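User: Round two. Same drill as before: sequence, then structure, for each protein.

Assistant: Same drill it is. First protein:
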Amino acid sequence: MTKHQKRLSVPKSWPVERKTETFTVKAGAGPHGEDGVPLVVLLRDVLGYVDSKKEARYALSEDAILINGDPINDEQRPIGMFDIVAFPGREEYYRVFPDEGGRLALTEIDEESAGSRLGKIEGKQQVPGGDTQLTLHDGTNVLVDDGSEYSSVDSVVVDNDDKSIVAHFPFEEGALVTAVRGNHGGKIGEIDAIDITPGSGPNTIGVSTDDGGFETVQEYVVVIDENFTGDDESSENATEGDDE
């Protein structure tokens, strides 16, 4: 298995330029599947805090970087949608959030907001003992006593310390959503229509925005809370650096 990743073939969500060099860092095993961006890419290409994988390893060895509240020691650990990237020593906190076109970007947040993260429910099942296990978009699981109020298209906010659910946002008309894929990736609006498609076809969602609206398939949108957006928040743009 190759240890390299060609830039031209990386997922569209990765914040890297594709035509400047041939290769970039390959993501390691972990959450978010193939959409996960290696941590070193964010540190180097987006934030500019390191120039190489070696410098990234040193920073991680000092427990200077937390992902969803946990120290990370693998510079290739995949980072994806709604992850919280924290630099306690710098007092800097970021949320990974879809930018225009669905490309992942870092949105600056405060320390309090960095204490929890958003997760889209993609599955649920009962486990021995009677609890319900909710599977989130990044592959992590959360246990709840009663799963009847949760749907597989809802969103929850999970506390980074005890992994408990602190908020629940149902997928319904009037809900605030962001498009994370497709031609409308990065756009935010409210659901004004849910068109249930008979058979196996995807449901269609109508979303109203400040500049009009759009339609997309249900799986391309995620319910969010208004605290996950803000006019005073800024996104970091991708810059280039060396791969080694």
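Second protein:
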Amino acid sequence: MIKTDTRSFRLGFAAFVLFTGLAGDFWRDATSWWGYGVVVLLVVIGAVTVLVQGTDRITLLRLPYPLLGFLALATVSIAWSFYPGSTALGVTAQWLTTIAGLSVALFLSWQDLLRVLGWVLRLILAMSFVFEFIVSAFIRHPVLPVWVVPADPKHIAALAYWSRDLLFSGAKIQGIVGNSSLLGMIALLALIVFSVQAMSRSVGRAWGWFWVLVAFATIVITDSATIYLGLVVVIVVAVMARVVGTASTPRRRRIAYAGVGGALVVLAIGVAIFHDRILSVVGKNDTLTGRTDIWNAVIQLAQQRPAFGWGWVSYWTPWVEPFKSFLHKGGVQVMHAHNAWLDVWLQLGILGLIVFGALVLSTLIRAWIMAVTPVIVSRQAPGSWSWLAMLPLLLLVAELVQSLAESRLLIEGGWIMLVVLAVKTKLSPLGVETVARVQERALR
């Protein structure tokens, strides 16, 4: 019989939750929506079990208020929703995803979270390359998800394929998640996690840097402009946090902040002046691969119900209006706004944007403070800068960059990561967590 209250179970279950959140498309494409439903049911049962057994660690009012406010607003939006049935379904999914995130956030230390993320991201990248190799070496033709039955087998939309058999051609591979942009985002998260592991020496040096190279190579192969931008922003933020975090005196810290502020101003001016050239370098036109058409259509809809929105739904439900008559992209029906902020405005209005913005901003501030604040690592050390402290900040920054071109921050793995970072940065910032462990060891 499995003991669900052990650390090994919680680590393994957290890995299962994060894999399912980040690679949910794999379960759907490989086992159908019915199979995915079984996996989700297992996640929910496990998460509830973990939370019930750890009720002494759960205090609802200690959770981030913006998180609770957003969930409450999404729930009550059923009252004014244009599609109440779909809203009820979306709200249920949002709460279940939140419960899954809480089962990870409340019972893993930052060190454990880093370890589990390392396991999961290595597994997704390794499975993606093995999958693409099997398709290109043995199957030798594009592969559809098991649940897709094309209406016209001779004219199948490229976006409908699970794998397009592109590994040996050097084009964008899609991996087990069936989408090159999503695989690129996973690679960016992996690059952050693997780099923190390598720099903090929580894994072997050769093993750590090998996977850093794998993650970087995956970013290059998937060739996503959003991910390239995310990589640049993550590097800039990492450098800024490193400069501020290692400033040893208040005066040096003020100088560091002044330098960071000046660098941000110069960067913003540069982007404003050379944005056309930047788009051409990354292979994008002024429509950002058709996204501006989607954004304009979403804005027009949002303006019809600007204050409170059409009602929460998370993933759009294509069987109800206004989504039923919405745009198609590449022969596939659009399922989200390709911008998390526009999606929140569409579904929960300006009020939703305020609450969601408060959730993101408060988490970002706590993550920044954690990244630049020295932490106690032993009874003798008064405080030192930690690479591990950079983890939540860099993960959140990467997610926020993606939120400008995708709505994944609101669903599945994106929402789980946001819940984990929001809760852990509030309840157990690294400095507090480390001090508690030092004090615990001192009492033994």
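DSSP finds 14 helices and two strands in the chain.

User: Perfect.
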